[in-house]
Write a structure and sequence with these properties.
Elements (H helix, E strand, L loop, with lengths): L16 H51 L12 E8 L4 E10 L4 E2 L4 E2 L11 E3 L10 E6 L14 E4 L14 E7 L2 E7 L6 E2 L1
Antiparallel strand pairs: 1-2, 1-7, 2-3, 2-4, 2-5, 6-8, 8-9, 9-10
Length: 200
């Protein structure tokens, strides 16, 4: 058996308090930078989710309007229509179905909310206040070009309604613009005079 010579080994030295504090400080700085980046990504993700939900709702309303075989009266006034309602107070976007009242020459706004079994409550309402996927996103502004048939669209709730051929009642050459906001960031959705909504 060989004897182990311990004379050449040095005792191990521990970390000083200053070294530990500097290490903790460096870890803290790196963590805070990562948190800022995560926060920015979260804002972009939430805004994009909300914008895509609005784009999908607009496409659905437009397709419903173009595809359900609606009829027109003697004045070629459509008897019913589908559209989007933007309520900046409630922070909601609703897909609705409205009918034309020939007696009053007015649409039955706010209309009937469309059903959607995939959303909470079974109605096609995008609630930016209560849905965790969009929590914190707000409708910052709604700009309508022109007016709806019977509503000036100068205050909330705003209505963007489609005609039988897929054009909007309220959108002129520049269309409608919806601005969403979250965490200091914004994004916009354009509803053109003719065509599907799109995120900018």
């Amino acid at each position: 058996m060989h004897a182990i010579n311990l004379s050449g080994l040095r005792p191990t030295r521990g970390y000083t308090l200053i070294e530990v504090l500097v290490s903790v400080l460096i870890i803290g700085i790196i963590s805070s930078l990562a948190m800022v980046d995560i926060g920015a990504n979260d804002a972009t993700t939430r805004l994009d989710r909300a914008a895509q939900a609005i784009v999908a709702a607009g496409r659905y309303a437009r397709m419903q309007n173009m595809g359900h075989g609606q009829t027109s009266g003697t004045s070629f006034q459509p008897t019913d229509a589908y559209g989007l309602q933007f309520d900046t107070s409630a922070n909601t976007i609703k897909v609705y179905h409205a009918t034309w009242n020939s007696g009053t020459n007015a649409w039955s706004l706010p209309g009937t909310t469309m059903a959607n079994s995939l959303l909470a409550g079974g109605s096609y309402v995008i609630n930016l206040k209560t849905d965790p996927a969009y929590a914190g996103v707000t409708i910052a502004a709604v700009q309508m070009t022109g007016t709806a048939d019977t509503s000036p669209n100068t205050s909330s709730p705003y209505y963007c309604q489609y005609r039988p051929f897929g054009d909007t009642f309220n959108a002129g050459s520049n269309g409608a613009l919806i601005t969403l906001s979250y965490g200091g960031k914004t994004c916009t959705i354009t509803i053109p005079a003719v065509g599907d909504p799109q995120e900018n």
